[in-house]
Sequence to fold (347 residues):
Amino acid sequence: MENKVFLDKLLEQKLISPETAQKILQESSFSKKSAEEIIYEKRMVPEEDVLKVKSQILKVPFKQVDPQTISDELIKLIPEETVRNFKIVPLSFEEGLLVAGMVNPDDIKAQEALKFIAKQLRVNLGIYLVSLGLWESILRKYSPYRSEVEAAVKSLLSLGSKKISLPQRIVQIEAGAGAEEAPIIKIVASTLKEAVWQKASDIHIEPQRERLRIRFRIDGELQEVSSMPLELHQPIVSRIKVLANLKIDETRVPQDGRFRTVLLGRDIDFRVATFPTPAGEKIALRVLDPQVGLKGLEELGLLGKNLRILQEGIKKTLRDGFNYWADWFRKNHHLVCFDADFKQRAS
Fold:
């Protein structure tokens, strides 16, 4: 589906303004993303309206599904690589009929991939149009954060409490290290990946009295995403310090660092800050995702009358501020001139 055809339809239904359409085209040309991806990332148009417009253009019925209804058995029918590369998701499977959702039903390669899977399973195939949001939600089921962390914790605990409680064994954590270090690497990697998935701006790793708490800041609000045994605190902190090239043996003063990694196919920067607390070192990671960035007023959900009221208020504040200083300057012009003359004579 061509960007211009899609945007013209949105303009026709007055879902975006001509100025917004022009900005989307420019950004699409610069970033090599489709107009739909840009609209979804910046939440410019409700997903249901986007689906209706795409359905009208492509002549394919759309379907909205609760991701929680997609079972683990169902997602095994389509490999993760296929789901990720072709934006295809399984929706249902019964009586020899596999119903799949496609973000881009007009993608020939995606059609061929689905036909190949149906042929292998020896089933008939049904197609619906689905949203990017649904595709992302189902894709996450292929590597669920909580189950990954739980498996890593169980693996680590099975090594024995003596091993995980000794910071000296964890100081040399590196990829490809021994069995006792591998679960820690998995926990940290899964946490970073989940934060990027959820578009979190910050990750907080905080030791409590009896447990280790991990929280993400999403849309300005801190949300707890995981709780682990307190014995894992030091190994996890050490792993993050290794990534950020911080001093592992320094725990009494704050430290700052950073590192960059590739997650979900894009470069992500992490700023790391440690801070000593009575329960142990707390770590805060700022997630700098190039796809998130700063949002404009329209991207925050302000539209129509509410947007105009805020914009007029901002302009009024600027005008009032300018007028105040202009009046002050006129009233005190003689003082300014005197001060300048005095300085010139003194020099």
Q: What stands out?
A: Residues 161-179 have pLDDT under 50 and may be disordered.
